[in-house]
Design a protein that fits this description.
Blueprint (H helix, E strand, L loop, with lengths): L6 E7 L15 E2 L2 E2 H10 L4 E8 L4 H9 L6 E6 L4 H11 L5 E6 L7 H11 L4 E7 L6 E2 L5 E3 L7 E10 H9 L8 H7 L5 E4 L10 H15 L1
Parallel strand pairs: 1-4, 1-6, 4-5, 7-11
Antiparallel strand pairs: 2-3, 6-10, 7-10, 8-9
Length: about 230
């Protein structure tokens, strides 16, 4: 990294698209561009990001590298192979980053992320060392046991649906992954277990995660609406 306070991004895109009906969501088109290209473009257009590492399955390495070379992106964009679990893929991405003060981790399946959302996360993270995009829950949530009997109803005003980007001071997230013992699906939960304060910042309801064909169709609609 050339700057003392530089930020690196890890885009986690090593999933198998199991719920996409046979379509690889990384290359599904949104506004005429592959979904993964939309994600990379947002990070390339964020001035604070200096390096990008895309974590993908080994069999997709050549195809993703070809896609990257086919775009005139200005940032340093590297690729690495992911692991069996999401946390293995994140760890591979962290290990592939050059030395930097801040790390932004983002799901490769969230194509409607914006440079402003990334930048806001970086600014917010300066308060506690960790910042996570999230949106207030709009539905009433019920907590139930294995028998589906409702145990209690938490106050909706205190509930947030967590998204990515998730921003970490580099030493914090690397320490968390060195001490990782159990399976996780959320990077922020790791640093919570170490006692660090995690600050939420306002994400976007448009910042959806594409896991099904219906999600992809919605992402296309949202993209078109954004262009209007």
């Amino acid at each position: 990294m050339s700057k003392k306070n530089g930020a690196g991004a890890v885009i986690v895109a090593a999933g198998e698209s199991k719920r996409m009906g046979g379509e690889d969501k990384l290359f599904a088109l949104i506004g005429g561009e592959p979904l993964l290209a939309r994600v990379i473009a947002a990070f390339n257009d964020c001035p604070a990001i200096e390096q990008i590492v895309v974590v993908i399955r080994e069999e997709k390495l050549a195809e993703v590298r070809k896609m990257i070379l086919g775009h005139d992106w200005s940032k340093e964009i590297d690729t690495c192979t992911g692991g069996a679990r999401r946390q293995d893929s994140v760890k591979a991405g962290l290990d592939s980053l050059e030395k930097c003060e801040w790390v932004v981790i983002h799901d490769g399946a969230r194509p409607l992320v914006t440079p402003d959302l990334i930048d806001t996360g970086l600014k917010t993270a300066k308060d506690t060392g960790v910042a996570v995009a999230a949106v207030p829950v709009t539905d009433t949530i019920k907590v139930a046991g294995g028998d589906r009997i409702v145990q209690y109803t938490p106050a909706r005003e205190s509930l947030w649906a967590v998204q990515t980007p998730q921003v970490f001071r580099s030493d914090i997230i690397n320490k968390a992954y060195r001490r990782l013992k159990e399976d996780v699906t959320d990077d922020a939960s790791l640093v919570e277990k170490l006692g660090y304060e995690v600050k939420l910042y306002r994400g976007s309801y448009d910042n959806i995660k594409v896991t099904t064909p219906e999600d992809l169709a919605l992402a296309e609609v949202l993209w078109r609406k954004r262009q209007e």
